[in-house]
């Protein structure tokens, strides 16, 4: 997909330890069109380790963006060029994560206090790649939480050529709160994000934070260009079945059983490569929440998928907890490309 065709009306957030390549392939069975984001990958990891470990992904994941963590413009530029070589659709800079580990590396949310440095990094990345370069950030940090601070940050970075800003509508406390608390305790400030779009109409503004239902996501589109959903989509992935119809004018919704069947060839191919079953099935535990047999489905996978040698039968037996007549294609001849 060319950068010009990237449609961010609905995005699924980068989530550490959750939005890995297996999870993203699963999500793609639920929605063809949502823009997916990788877990944050640090520039140091890409430049000093085996890149394939962090950059490899399945072609079915497109459109997919690589999120980078870093602050050195030269390093960011090198990693952005790698993203293009690996055929990602977008490069996103993390300016929103408040964890101590990220702060110790001088990137993440603390970069909101260094707008000029972020601008230098954006310019360096834009010079190194033709991919869209975007920034994900908060509404503020610590006591730097005025609307003027937010507009100064966005304005400075936009002057460097960034045209897309993904705004988590909460400020971040850089000390005193855990990353989990930073997702829950600072109040949501949707009005600030709406106002940002009014004041910067030429920019693409994506809103993130506290969005749990598609109806709520759709309401935000009255004020901004796109929405990003995170943990609610992970914990209740069947929500994603309605994304294509709601946001991309598809004729029909997807369906959880069909999505799982479509994910099955990927699971089969990865098992043959030596991937552990639970590394994939951990992402599907919430797929049937609210349906008869869902608890038994989760329990069976949780108790068996981690065991050495766990295979396709474990997954089929879990499906039997939901529908004994539903038989997954255990010997698919059409495997996703790897």
UniProtKB/TrEMBL annotation:
Residue span(s) of domain DUS-like FMN-binding: 12-314
InterPro entries: Aldolase_TIM, DUS-like_FMN-bd, DUS_fam, DusA, tRNA_hU_synthase_CS
Keywords assigned by UniProt, alphabetized: Flavoprotein, FMN, NADP, Nucleotide-binding, Oxidoreductase, RNA-binding, tRNA processing, tRNA-binding
Record-linked CDD domains: DUS_like_FMN (cd02801)
EC number, UniProt record: 1.3.1.91
Span of the signal peptide: none
Annotated site residue numbers, Interacts with tRNA: 94, 180, 183, 298
Principal EC category: oxidoreductase
Pfam family, one: Dus
GO molecular function: flavin adenine dinucleotide binding; FMN binding; tRNA binding; tRNA-dihydrouridine20 synthase activity
PROSITE patterns in alphabetical order: UPF0034
Cofactor(s) the protein requires to work: FMN
Binding site for FMN: 14-16, 67, 136, 168, 208-210, 230-231
Domain of life: Bacteria
Active site: 97
SUPFAM superfamilies: FMN-linked oxidoreductases
Keyword check for tRNA-binding: yes
Swiss-Prot/TrEMBL catalytic activity: 5,6-dihydrouridine(20) in tRNA + NAD(+) = uridine(20) in tRNA + NADH + H(+); 5,6-dihydrouridine(20) in tRNA + NADP(+) = uridine(20) in tRNA + NADPH + H(+); 5,6-dihydrouridine(20a) in tRNA + NADP(+) = uridine(20a) in tRNA + NADPH + H(+); 5,6-dihydrouridine(20a) in tRNA + NAD(+) = uridine(20a) in tRNA + NADH + H(+)
Function description: Catalyzes the synthesis of 5,6-dihydrouridine (D), a modified base found in the D-loop of most tRNAs, via the reduction of the C5-C6 double bond in target uridines. Specifically modifies U20 and U20a in tRNAs.
Family note: Belongs to the dus family. Belongs to the Dus family. DusA subfamily.
Protein's name according to its UniProt entry: tRNA-dihydrouridine(20/20a) synthase
Phylogenetic lineage: Bacteria, Pseudomonadati, Pseudomonadota, Gammaproteobacteria, Litorivivens
Gene: dusA
């Amino acid at each position: 997909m060319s950068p010009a065709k990237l449609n961010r009306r609905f995005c699924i957030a980068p989530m550490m330890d959750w939005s890995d390549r297996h999870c993203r392939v699963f999500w793609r069975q639920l929605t063809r069109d949502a823009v997916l984001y990788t877990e944050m990958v640090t520039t140091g990891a890409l430049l000093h380790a085996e890149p394939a470990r962090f950059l490899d992904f399945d072609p079915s994941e497109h459109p997919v963006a690589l999120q980078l963590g870093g602050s050195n413009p030269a390093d960011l530029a090198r990693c952005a060029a790698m993203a293009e070589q690996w055929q990602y659709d977008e490069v996103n800079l993390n300016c929103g994560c408040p964890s101590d580990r990220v702060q110790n590396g001088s990137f993440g949310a603390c970069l909101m206090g260094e707008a000029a440095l972020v601008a230098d990094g954006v310019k360096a990345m834009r010079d190194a790649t033709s991919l869209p370069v975007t920034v994900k950030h908060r509404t503020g940090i610590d006591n730097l939480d005025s609307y003027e601070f937010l507009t100064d940050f966005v304005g400075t970075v936009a002057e460097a050529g960034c045209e897309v800003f993904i705004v988590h509508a909460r400020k971040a406390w850089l000390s005193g709160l855990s990353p989990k608390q930073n997702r829950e305790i600072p109040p949501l400030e949707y009005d600030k994000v709406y106002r940002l779009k009014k004041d910067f109409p030429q920019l693409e503004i994506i809103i993130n934070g506290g969005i749990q239902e598609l109806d709520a996501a759709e309401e935000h589109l009255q004020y901004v260009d796109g929405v990003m959903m995170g943990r609610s989509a992970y914990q209740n992935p069947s929500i994603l079945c309605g994304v294509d119809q709601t946001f991309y004018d598809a004729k029909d919704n997807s369906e959880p059983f069909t999505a799982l069947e479509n994910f099955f060839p990927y699971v089969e191919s990865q098992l043959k490569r030596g991937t552990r079953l639970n590394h994939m099935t951990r992402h599907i535990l919430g797929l049937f929440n609210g349906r008869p047999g869902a608890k038994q489905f989760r329990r069976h996978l949780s108790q068996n998928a981690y065991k050495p040698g766990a295979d396709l039968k474990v997954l089929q037996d879990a499906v039997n907890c939901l529908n004994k007549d539903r038989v997954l294609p255990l010997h698919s001849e059409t495997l996703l490309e790897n």
